[in-house]
């Protein structure tokens, strides 16, 4: 008779049990803010959200939206001050455990487990063989601004979404069924069209249930990574880089259990029916259209298009009209864009990309959707080109909700 293996510990799987911090009323819709890397070319969206929040406690006060990166010097001290104040009289709920989150949007109900990962078990460099790996190439020049925020921070909240390779979708639904009848930590309608969000504390027997399911996924991973980073690649890479700087000044004993060694994330299943992959389009600003046409001269194209994009296609939209390229893979397109030295933004939604591309002096590339089945195999030997896919539309991204201390 075969003796069943004991479930692995969270530490053995590169996971960590965090102390979750929440405000007294986390169901106030002004508390959670959308991911910092959304609406980067639409500061008016952030301005409208800030006007709605007013002076109310909000994770908006704890983050630096990328739309305002140029103002980081003046904004960072304000963010760090808010973190100190929130620890005194806002973040009054604290418990050790995970959070099971249910996010209801037009795409369905997406389940996620809010937990912490051990940054020693994550690597964003090309060719990494770590248990937790990035899905896209990391642009090292984009890290310093995010690192600057974290280096002076006492708290973290997170918009990072991780992906589990659970083809049978047997991990999170049973946990949801065990918890959904209990009183949630929060239950609210998100602002900015983000849908409904509910969350339950995962402790005691449900924590053991989660550990058993995660242990099974870990044992079955084979040569593939245990977890892939779906959203927030650069934010997590910044947390790793800050930890590497921090750990250099610590003794071996101090490194064990140091709060900066871990990062708060939400783990979702790649195969959750409500998790939709969407393309990330490229919008170019102040681009020389003649130079762009010359750079694309070696790729076959036709004017306009009438069908949904697929495969290795890319649709160029500019003030001159539309042109469909049928054999222009993302890695080659990205090389063309990088060679132009024009300002490039990564945008969600066909309509937004078209509107931006049609403006005088601009251009945009609309790209096809990546298939889920390709993901874990694609990153087994290295990351994808940056911004290869998006998990849902901008308002379906993870909102900042839970907090955690990252200083001793």
The total strand number stands at 22
Average pLDDT over all residues: 93
Radius of gyration computed on alpha carbons: 22 Å
Helical residue percent? 25-40%
Per DSSP, the total helix count is 11
What does the overall shape look like? globular
Q: End-to-end span in angstroms?
A: 47 Å
Query: How does the helix and strand content classify structurally?
Result: alpha+beta
- Biggest sheet overview: 10 strands, mixed
Fraction of residues in β-strands: 15-25%
Low-confidence stretches: none
Number of domains: 2
Description of the molecule:
This protein has helices spanning 43-53, 72-89, 143-151, 172-179, 204-219, 233-247, 252-255, 289-295, 330-340, 350-357, 375-378; strands at residues 15-16, 19-22, 93-96, 98-105, 108-118, 122-123, 132-134, 155-156, 161-164, 186-190, 195-202, 227-231, 262-269, 277-278, 281-285, 301-303, 314-318, 321-325, 343-347, 362-366, 390-391, 404-405. Strands 1, 4, 5, 6, 7, 9, 10, 11, 12 and 13 form a 10-stranded mixed β-sheet that branches. The mean pLDDT is 93. The chain contains 11 helices and 22 strands. Helix 3 packs across helix 6 (233-247) and helix 4 packs antiparallel against helix 5. By secondary structure, it is an alpha+beta fold. It folds into 2 domains: 11-277 and 389-405, no CATH class; 280-368, Conserved hypothetical protein from pyrococcus furiosus pfu- 392566-001, domain 2 (2-Layer Sandwich), CATH 3.30.1760.
Would you kindly provide a brief summary of this structure?
The chain is of the alpha+beta class.
């Amino acid at each position: 008779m075969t003796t069943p293996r004991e479930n692995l510990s969270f530490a053995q799987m590169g996971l960590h049990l965090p102390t979750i911090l929440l405000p007294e009323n986390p169901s106030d819709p002004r508390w959670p803010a959308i991911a910092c890397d959304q609406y980067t070319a639409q500061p008016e969206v952030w301005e409208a959200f800030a006007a709605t929040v007013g002076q109310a406690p909000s994770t908006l006060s704890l983050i630096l939206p990328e739309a305002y990166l140029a103002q980081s010097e003046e904004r960072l001290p304000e963010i760090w001050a808010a973190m100190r104040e929130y620890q005194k009289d806002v973040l009054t709920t604290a418990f050790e455990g995970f959070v099971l989150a249910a996010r209801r949007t037009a795409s369905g109900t997406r389940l996620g487990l809010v937990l912490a990962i051990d940054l020693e078990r994550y690597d964003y460099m090309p060719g990494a063989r770590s248990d937790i790996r990035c899905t896209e190439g990391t642009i090292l020049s984009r890290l310093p601004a995010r690192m600057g925020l974290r280096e002076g921070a006492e708290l973290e909240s997170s918009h990072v979404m991780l992906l589990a390779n659970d083809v049978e979708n047997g991990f999170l639904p049973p946990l949801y069924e065990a918890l959904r009848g209990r009183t949630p930590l929060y239950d609210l309608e998100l602002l900015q069209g983000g849908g409904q969000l509910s969350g339950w504390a995962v402790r005691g027997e449900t924590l053991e249930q989660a550990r058993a399911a995660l242990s099974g996924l870990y044992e079955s991973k084979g040569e593939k990574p245990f977890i892939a980073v779906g959203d927030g690649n650069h934010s997590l890479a910044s947390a790793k880089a800050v930890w590497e700087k921090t750990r250099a000044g610590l003794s071996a004993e101090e490194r064990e259990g140091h709060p900066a060694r871990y990062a708060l994330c939400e783990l979702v299943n790649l195969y959750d029916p409500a998790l939709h992959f969407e393309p990330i389009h490229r919008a170019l600003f102040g681009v020389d259209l003649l130079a762009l046409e010359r750079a694309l001269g070696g790729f076959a194209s036709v004017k306009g298009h009438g069908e949904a994009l697929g495969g290795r296609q890319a649709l160029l939209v500019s003030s001159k009209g539309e042109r469909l390229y049928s054999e222009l893979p993302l890695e080659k397109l990205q090389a063309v864009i990088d060679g132009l030295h024009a300002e490039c933004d990564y945008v969600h939604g066909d309509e937004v990309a078209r509107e931006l591309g049609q403006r005088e002096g601009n251009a945009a590339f609309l790209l096809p959707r990546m298939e889920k089945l390709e993901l874990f195999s694609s990153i087994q030997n290295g990351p994808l080109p940056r911004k290869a896919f998006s998990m849902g539309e901008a308002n379906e991204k993870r909102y900042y909700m839970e907090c955690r201390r990252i200083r001793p």
